[in-house]
Amino acid sequence: MINKVIIDSMESNSVFKVRDILSKEILSVIKERPIILLCIGTDRSTGDSLGPLVGDKLNFLIRDHIFIYGNLECPIHAKNLCDTVNKIKSTYKNPYIIAVDACLGNIQNVGKIIIENKPVIPGAAMNKKLPPIGDLSITGIVNIAGALEFMVLQNTRLYVVMHLADIISSGIYHSIIKTIGGKKNIISNNRGLV
């Protein structure tokens, strides 16, 4: 199990670093637990749209034991997060939740991806009181932390968010292919996601 890994998304091998780290984590749980990708954020704020963008890019990845919650059409945000987590826990037996979210950090860390064996604390930049979520967290640093986080998130460059979403979604995709293999039975609801 990893503790904390920081990956520079601008490195040419960043997708493969994400893939290899996630593959090790997924391999140890896939036989016993369903894997839930919980992509947190909202498309109403550029800086906070990382999670829904990753969910959108991975909606084709749903297969046996892999389920995705959160995309651009149906984002998982502060108002529906607790209900969604309760639904996940009542639907799946002992789910392994991988939470994907945006975060703010130091200027030299913008564009970096953090993978940790601990929950993500959604809404922390906005001082929202939400419970920690996930067994594993993948966060992308989209902008600098400091004063007026709401304005910082609103004024985040879309390029940074899209680049992080591309690297994270590609890394997740390749880790699933590496550990589980190709497409099997697709389970979906009327929106194409479970």
From TrEMBL:
<dbReference type="InterPro" id="IPR023430">
    <property type="entry name" value="Pept_HybD-like_dom_sf"/>
</dbReference>
<dbReference type="InterPro" id="IPR009665">
    <property type="entry name" value="YyaC"/>
</dbReference>
<dbReference type="Pfam" id="PF06866">
    <property type="entry name" value="DUF1256"/>
</dbReference>
<protein>
    <submittedName>
        <fullName>Putative sporulation protein YyaC</fullName>
    </submittedName>
</protein>
